[in-house]
Automatic annotation (TrEMBL):
Organism (species): Dokdonella ginsengisoli
Gene3D superfamilies: Glutaredoxin
Gene giving rise to this polypeptide: grxD
Positions of the Glutaredoxin domain: 16-80
Organism lineage string: Bacteria, Pseudomonadati, Pseudomonadota, Gammaproteobacteria, Lysobacterales
The protein's name: Glutaredoxin
Top-level taxon in the UniProt lineage: Bacteria
Family listed: Belongs to the glutaredoxin family. Monothiol subfamily.
């Protein structure tokens, strides 16, 4: 399976996927840390992918998503965005609604 297929499979098989630098427990950059914290704050159960451990995903995810930076948050297979967008959604209450929708499905 090529790397684009692996990314697609991950994004489509999990309701919430966060591609990040590091892990939720040990984030390796501030943006990844803040994004994971926002998800935890709304009670999200999410799958994370450490792009530092998978150079192929790190190199190809921006091509797959048309988004150049990390972290990248996907909900229901759709790119939501990075840290800034996730934090804006969190502050507006929209992130919590999106997360609750995944738990109903």
């Amino acid at each position: 399976m090529d790397v684009i297929e692996r990314i697609k499979s991950t994004v489509e098989s999990q309701p919430i996927v966060l591609f990040m630098k590091g892990t939720p427990q040990f984030p390796m950059c501030g943006f990844s840390s803040r994004t994971a914290q926002a998800l935890k704050a709304v009670g999200a159960s999410f799958h994370s992918v450490n792009v530092l451990e998978d150079p192929e995903i790190r190199a190809n995810l921006p091509r797959y998503s048309n988004w150049p930076t990390f972290p990248q948050l996907f909900i229901h297979g759709e790119l939501i965005g990075g840290c800034d967008i996730t934090l804006e959604l969190y502050e507006s209450g929209e992130l919590e609604r999106l997360v609750q929708d995944t738990q109903k499905a």
